[in-house]
Amino acid sequence: MIRLSLSHLPRVGLVVGAVVCGSLAITSPAHAQSCILTRLDSPVVDAFDPSLGLDVDESRWEVSFSWRYGHADRHFVGTEEQKYRRAENSQVENDVHLLDLGVRYRFSRQNEVVLGVPYLLAKREGPIRNADRELIGRQVR
Q1: Is residue 35 in a domain?
Q2: Which of 16, 36, 84, 122 is 20 to 30 A from 69 via CA?
Q3: CB 18 within 8 A of CB 10
Q4: Rounded Cα distance, 95 and 112, in Å
């Protein structure tokens, strides 16, 4: 068992600080990869606003619906946009629809049951190339 007195705390803090700073210093920079088009966010806070005069006890059922759409067709290498891809019709295009249906039933102020049903509808369209890397058409997935 290791026993530390209060006089050791400054040294322990210094060692911990050095380890944290050292681990941060040796990390490599992060780079985005692929396209990050959209994400589905569900509300975290209660949907009932007390200023609306709605009493939670009176409202047993709640139904919510959210939808998010995203379209991406631009290409980057680092910070440089590859504008020639659109000119030669070789860009990849992504269309994403994210839907979320939620139903909540409150038994009391403290007890409730929540059901959330997310749905994803996506289309990806990109170039088709032959063995010589020549563009011969487009493909939808």
Answers
A1: no
A2: 84
A3: no
A4: 36
Per DSSP bridges, beta strands 80-81 and 93-106 are unpaired
Q: Is the pTM of this model over 0.70?
A: no
Would you tell me how many other CB atoms lie within 10 Å of the CB of residue 91? 19
Q: Is 64 exposed, middle or buried (0-12, 13-18, 19+ CB in 10 A)?
A: middle
The total of structural domains in the chain comes to 1
Which residue in this structure is represented by tokens 């010589």?
A: 132
Q: Is residue 74 part of a domain?
A: yes
Distances (CA, A) of 83 to 6, 19, 36, 89: 63, 45, 19, 10
Question: Is 96 a domain residue?
Answer: yes
Q: Are the C-beta atoms of residues 16 and 27 closer than 8 Å to each other? A: no
Helix (H, G, I), strand (E, B) or coil at 103: strand
Are 128 and 135 contacting, i.e. CB atoms less than 8 angstroms apart?
yes
pLDDT above 50 (res 45): no
Which of 42, 79, 92, 88 has the alpha carbon at shortest distance from 64? 42
Flag whether 11 is in a domain.
no
Rounded CA gap, 127 and 23, in Å? 42
Q: Does residue 80 carry a pLDDT above 70?
A: yes
